[in-house]
Amino acid sequence: MENIKVKESEAQTRQPGDQFKMNPEPLTIRKNYRGSNKLTGKVAFVTGGDSGIGKSAAIHFAREGANVAIVYLNEDKDAEATENEIKAEGVKCLLLKGDIKDEEFCKRAINKTIAHFGKLNILVNNAAMQFPTEAIENITSENLHKTFVTNIYAYFYIAKAAISHLQKGDTIINTTSVTAYRGSEHLIDYASTKGAIVSFTRSLSKSLAPKNIRVNAVAPGPIWTPLIPATFSGDDLENFGKDVPLGRPGQPSEVGPAYVFLASEDSSYMTGQVIHINGGEIIGG
């Protein structure tokens, strides 16, 4: 993908954005990706699973044989499209519409998943918000609160609700970001939540290690998802992702397989770790 251009009629004005409006639309899974039953019989729960990275993880899980529950805010068209793609893989899908900033909704979503599928094996905390600003003085209290409650409080809400249902060999995967490691001058609050997710992952992994429940994370760099045209415009959108060594933004299809790896026995000796998928940017940790 060399250039990103959003038509005027497709401009996005609210988060987390609609994938069906994007031009070009993100690639969710490679045509030549072949499942090998790595997750057959498993049940996965993915927040922000209607689009972007969350959708890619969900579709990859489905191709590997897992049934999937996806949580989304209000993007019905994207969610229904994802549901159809998951079912096309020969597995089941449960749509859970609601706001993860609400702890009671998070509890209900987990309980509905258990009631529908009878179990839960893979928990993916992924949904996020961001409000770019050029200076800390411009970060409003309202946006600061939304960013933290969505990006890290909800991870606590969902993990707390899910823990009692997870068994030996089950997994939790959190989506952090390259910004947690290198910072971001125009996403100070967002980067701060992503740093918190790294610490959350490491701390929860130690807490759950005695139960053999593994907790890891993925730290994407610039990936072409609905959150991008919903938060950037003009030159920022046109040049998105061009400053990494590979010279382009990544596709969700290039991130999804990492979630399969962390959810499957392939990563059975990994916990508390972060996989970096960022186009070649060298960062610590």
TrEMBL record:
> Which PANTHER family does the UniProt entry name for this protein?
NADPH-DEPENDENT ALDEHYDE REDUCTASE 1, CHLOROPLASTIC, NADPH-DEPENDENT ALDEHYDE REDUCTASE-LIKE PROTEIN, CHLOROPLASTIC-RELATED
Q: What is this protein called?
A: NAD(P)-dependent dehydrogenase, short-chain alcohol dehydrogenase family
Similarity section: Belongs to the short-chain dehydrogenases/reductases (SDR) family.
Q: What Pfam families does UniProt report for this protein, alphabetically?
A: adh_short_C2
Q: Which NCBIfam families match?
A: PRK06701.1 (NF005214)
Q: Which SUPFAM superfamilies match?
A: NAD(P)-binding Rossmann-fold domains (SSF51735)
The lineage's top-level taxon is: Bacteria
* Region of interest: Disordered: 1-24
GO MF annotations for this entry?
oxidoreductase activity, acting on CH-OH group of donors
